[in-house]
Amino acid sequence: ERWKGRVALVTGASVGIGAAVARALVQHGMKVVGCARSVDKIEKLAAECQSAGYSGTLIPYKCDLCNEDEILSMFSAIKTLHQGVDVCINNAGLAHNEPLLSGHTEGWRNMIDVNILALAICTREAYQSMKERGVDDGHIININSMGGHRMVPSADEHFYCATKYAVTALTEGLRQELREAKTHIRASCISPGIVETEFAFRHHNSDPERAAAVYESIKCLKAEDIASAVIYVLSAPPHVQIGDVQMRPVEQVS
Fold first, then answer.
1. Angle, CA 228 vertex, CA 25 and CA 96 arms, to 5°
2. Rounded CA gap, 206 and 177, in Å?
3. Residue 157 belongs to what H/E stretch?
4. Stated pTM of the model
5. Tens-digit pLDDT profile for the chain (254 aa)?
6. What angle do helix axes 16-27 and 40-51 make, rounded to 10 degrees?
7. Cα–Cα distance for residue pair 18/61, rounded to 1 Å
8. Which residues are bridge partners to 186 per DSSP?
9. Is 123 in contact with 174 (CB distance < 8 Å)?
């Protein structure tokens, strides 16, 4: 209830986990700025939320997270139109099939830009937004991966896992800095295993059969399961810090 009417930013909100999280927050009465490079799907989701009579609102925003200027412009627009950000959900992430021994630098750099740098920039800007308005109960939630806690035995995933290990470290570093700043703004991390979204099809874009096999091998998590975890984290009492929620399908081995 305390989040009703407050402003949340959800990155990568056009599909999958980001879309499910945005919908859940709108359902709980928040003003949600959902950003992505293409906003068509977010606009459609916003219309669905309105038709469903949800008490919150979804505001689509076009932003390329690989471009710091676009990120800064987005935060400036949020400040102008909605005062600022109270909750930041760093959800955007991607993977490329670029092994350590043979991968292309361009693919590695793209994963660093989205999975690490964009997350760090959005975190910094969200904190500054909260600080300048005296918001002491904000929350920053990083959507991580089980790949941020153990290395997947597949060369195609190794660099991706490295970026997610960085997210694990960044979240803990953030928690320590927030504590040192004597603020009650909280930092949390949600680390899912296999979630049935468009992720595998984008990852294995040249081999759709391989992508489909990922989701057919076991009963996977759903995007809505991760959205529920976000609601759980935000629902914790102010004195409770949930550091890392690790989730995986019951049948997932590693």
1. 90
2. 42
3. none
4. 0.94
5. 889 999 999 999 999 999 999 999 999 999 999 999 999 999 999 999 999 999 999 999 999 999 999 999 999 999 999 999 999 999 999 999 999 999 999 999 999 999 999 999 999 999 999 999 999 999 999 999 999 999 989 999 999 999 999 999 999 999 999 999 999 999 999 999 999 887 766 666 666 777 677 778 789 999 999 999 999 999 999 999 999 999 999 988 76
6. 30
7. 13
8. 139
9. yes
Active site residues: 160
Neighbours of 242 (CB within 10 A): 18
> Whose CA is closest to 157, among 172, 145, 168?
145
Among 51, 9, 69, which Cα is nearest to 230's? 9
Please enumerate in sequence order all residues whose Cβ is within 8 A of that of 240, keeping only pairs 6 or more positions apart, or say none: none
Question: Per the structure block, which two tokens stand in for 151?
Answer: 């290395």
β-pair type (139-143, 186-192): parallel
Q: How many secondary structure helices (H) and strands (E) does the chain include?
A: 9, 7
CB atoms within 10 A of CB 50: 13
Q: Say if residues 99 and 156 touch (Cβ distance below 8 Å).
A: yes
Which residues on neighbouring strands pair with residue 32, listed in sequence order? Answer: 8, 58
Give the 3-state secondary structure of residue 219: coil
